[in-house]
Amino acid sequence: MSERSERSDGMIEARDVRLTFGSTPALRGANLSVARGEIVAVMGPSGSGKSTLLHCLAGILVPDEGEVWFDGQRVDTMNEERRSMLRRDRFGFVFQFGQLVPELTAVENVALPLLLAGARRPKAVAEAGAWFERLGLGGLEGRRSGELSGGQAQRVALARALVAKPEVIYADEPTGALDTLTGEQVMDLLVTAARAQGTTVVLVTHEARVAAYADRQVIVTDGRVDALVEVLS
Ligand code: ADP
Ligand code: MG
C-alpha cells in the first residue's frame, strides 16, 4: 500500500527535496507543485539542478531527503520496480538528443512504448504511424535515426513520448540541439499535442523563448526553486 497524500493538490510535487552527488549538492530543498494538465517550464542557469529535479520528479533518481509525490503516491519511497512501472506506464520522456534506438526504424522507435505496454505489433505500428502525419513526418517511417535531421529525430522522439498517451511528459532541453526555427516547430507540436491530450508537461530549458510556451515558469537557482513567474498566455 502506498501512502496517500492528504495535503497535496498538485499532481506532481517535490517537497524540500535534497540530493548531493559526492560532495556536490545538486538540490538543496527544492519545492514544486504542478497541477494536472499544466505545462511548467523549469528554467535556470547550467548546473543549477534542473535536470536533477526533473529526474527526481520522474522517479529516475531518488532524493537523499524530502518527498516526491505523483497522483497521491509517494515516489521517493517506492522500490525501483514500481518506479520503473510508473515511468513506463504513465510518463513520456524527451531528452536533448532524441535518444532513438539506432537499430530500429523511426516508426519502430515510436511503436516501442506500445509494444512494451503489451500491444500487438500491427496495432502498435499503425498507431505509431498515425503520429507521422500529425507531426509532419510523413514518408520518414522507415528511416533510421542516422538518416534523419536533428529536427526530424526530435519530432520522432516527441511522437514516441506521446504515443502511449502518458499523463506526464518530462522534457529536458528538448530543443537544446536545434536551431531557433526548428526548436519552435518542436515546441509548437509538443504544446499542441499535450493540450489536445490533457498531458501535463514539465519542461526543462534555459531558453526564455522556449519557456514562453509554458503556462508557468519557475526558476531553479543553486538547487532551489526560488522564483515564480506567472505567464499570461
Ligand atoms: P542543470 O540541469 O541545471 O544544468 P544538473 O541538475 O545537471 O543541472 O546538475 C546540478 C549539479 O549537480 C551540477 O553541479 C552538476 O555538476 C552536478 N551533477 C549532476 N549530475 C551529476 C552526477 N551524476 N554526478 C555528479 N555530479 C552531478
Ligand atoms: Mg540539465
Short summary of the structure?
The protein is an alpha/beta fold and 233 residues long.
What labels describe this entry?
233 residues, binds magnesium ion, alpha/beta, Rossmann fold, binds adenosine-5'-diphosphate
Task: Give a description of the structure.
The protein has helices at 50-57, 80-90, 106-116, 121-134, 150-162, 180-197, 208-211, and strands at residues 12-21, 24-34, 39-43, 65-70, 73-74, 91-94, 168-172, 200-204, 216-221, 224-230. It has a domain at 3-99 and 166-230: P-loop containing nucleotide triphosphate hydrolases (Rossmann fold, 3-Layer(aba) Sandwich). Strand 1 (12-21) and strand 2 (24-34) form a beta hairpin. Strands 6-7-8-3-9-10 form a six-stranded mixed sheet. It has a four-stranded antiparallel sheet with strand order 2-1-4-5, with helices on one face. The N and C termini lie far apart (40 Å). With 233 residues, the protein is of the alpha/beta class. Helix 3 (106-116) packs across helix 4 (121-134) and helix 3 runs parallel beside helix 5. It has seven helices and ten strands. Magnesium ion (MG) is lined by residues 50-51. InterPro entries: AAA+_ATPase (IPR003593), ABC_transporter-like_ATP-bd (IPR003439), ABC_transporter-like_CS (IPR017871), ABC_transpr_LolD-like (IPR015854), MacB-like_ATP-bd (IPR017911), P-loop_NTPase (IPR027417). It holds the Pfam family ABC_tran.
